[in-house]
Write a structure and sequence with these properties.
This protein is an alpha/beta fold. The chain has helices at 22-33, 68-84, 99-109, 125-128, 131-144, 156-166, 205-211, 228-237, 255-261, 274-277, 282-289, 300-308, 319-331, 333-349, 352-364; strands at residues 10-13, 38-44, 57-62, 90-94, 112-117, 150-153, 171-172, 192-196, 218-222, 244-248, 264-267, 294-296, 312-314. Helix 1 (22-33) packs across helix 15 (352-364), helix 2 runs parallel beside helix 3 (99-109) and helix 7 (205-211) crosses helix 13.
């Protein structure tokens, strides 16, 4: 890990563990390659692994509180004082939960302020279902976002929605892998369904595990989260130990190796709020670049992208629909081959080489 003995040109901050933030790792590397000095700041948790050596600078902040409003208060306070003594030219907040310290410091120092909206923060279920909490975050956003010099998010539809709400231009920078392969992989001997991501509410993981009772395949689950123990118990209760394998936390650099062995990718959410309905998950593009068809939610970004590049079967989020459509992908060879060929085409259109040019151009305007 780089020591903080250099003056960062851009400082990004997130509230998660840097080791597993694939999106910010890609952005930081892209900007370093373009000649920017980048510092990425995140949180250190009790189970955090040592940071790997990177081309960008890294810093983790340790907090006494692990979650809830006290965590956000503590983290933002610690972050404010860190940023106050951080001699950057551009202060880039990733999501609303780190924007306020950046706003104060950018005003005090008269520096550029960037807002990177990884999701529709005021509409995520944890916020949207709590009226007072939502109102606080919404007022913060309405107050702070007009002070920003640049704003972007993860997809074109969400960019339009944020423009409508905040009356300011938002750009779209998709989180896509680098294009490294130009031919489909060989036929797989074992049919593996892969889910990669957090094990949290709304990810249809309970439905997926229950669906495995009627599916002749293996399910790999890469990630951990609030439902980790509950999902493992569910597997035990249904005697699915031979069908479902929990892989735990997997570093972003290891995910392509898993996808290489997979037959189908799983990317289904429940319609729990506007944030999910405007989502465009990292895994959507990771599956495309692994040339594996996927099961996907019928949300606005996926419907739009699937019309131009049909790489997924769109499904409802109930157990029966998930089981039916997984079996369809497992048995309909013509459908599977068509979607797999379309993945090859889509990878040429959505890749880091193209999106990185857009990201660099945005920062060059500041």
């Amino acid at each position: 890990m780089h020591k903080l003995d250099k003056k960062p040109f851009i400082v990004f901050t997130v509230t998660n563990d840097l080791s597993y933030d694939q999106r910010m790792q890609r952005h930081a590397r892209t900007l370093v390659e373009a000649g920017f000095e980048v510092l990425l700041v995140g949180r250190e948790r009790s189970f955090s692994k040592p940071l790997l050596e990177e081309v960008f600078l890294q810093k983790r902040i340790k907090c006494f509180f692990e979650k809830g409003k006290f965590f956000y208060l503590e983290y933002n306070l610690r972050l404010f004082f860190f940023l106050l003594f951080c001699k950057a030219r551009i202060y880039a907040a990733v999501d609303l939960d780190t924007l306020f310290p950046h706003l104060l410091v950018s005003i005090i120092k008269q520096k550029k302020l960037v807002f990177d909206s990884h999701e529709y923060f005021t509409e995520v279920p944890e916020v949207a279902n709590r009226p007072f909490t939502r109102a606080v975050w919404h007022k913060l956003a309405k107050f702070a976002i007009p002070f920003t010099d640049l704003r972007y998010t993860v997809g074109p539809s969400l960019a339009k929605e944020l423009e409508r709400v905040y009356h300011l231009p938002f750009y779209s920078i998709m989180n896509v892998p680098a294009l490294v392969r130009t031919e489909n992989k060989k036929e797989l001997e074992e049919k593996i369904i892969l889910y990669q991501g957090a094990l949290n509410e709304g990810r249809c993981l309970v439905q997926l595990i229950n669906a495995m009772k009627s599916i002749e395949a293996i399910l790999w689950i890469a990630g951990e989260g609030d439902l980790s123990n509950e999902l493992r118990t569910l597997v035990d209760q249904n005697n699915l130990e031979n069908k479902v394998k929990f892989l735990g936390f997997v570093l972003p650099s290891e995910l392509p190796k898993l996808a290489e062995k997979a037959f189908i990718g799983f990317n289904v959410l429940e319609p729990n709020g506007l944030s999910y309905q405007f989502s465009l998950a990292n895994k959507y593009f990771d599956y495309i670049h692994a040339f594996i068809p996927q099961l996907c939610s019928p949300f606005i970004e996926y419907e739009t992208l699937n019309k131009s590049n049909e790489v997924a079967v769109l499904t409802l989020w109930d157990e029966n629909s998930i089981a039916h459509n997984l079996n369809k992908l497992l048995t309909d060879k013509e459908l599977y081959q068509r979607l797999q060929n379309n993945c090859l085409k889509a990878a040429q259109e959505y890749n880091l080489q193209l999106e990185s040019c857009k990201l660099v151009q945005l920062y060059q305007t500041l």
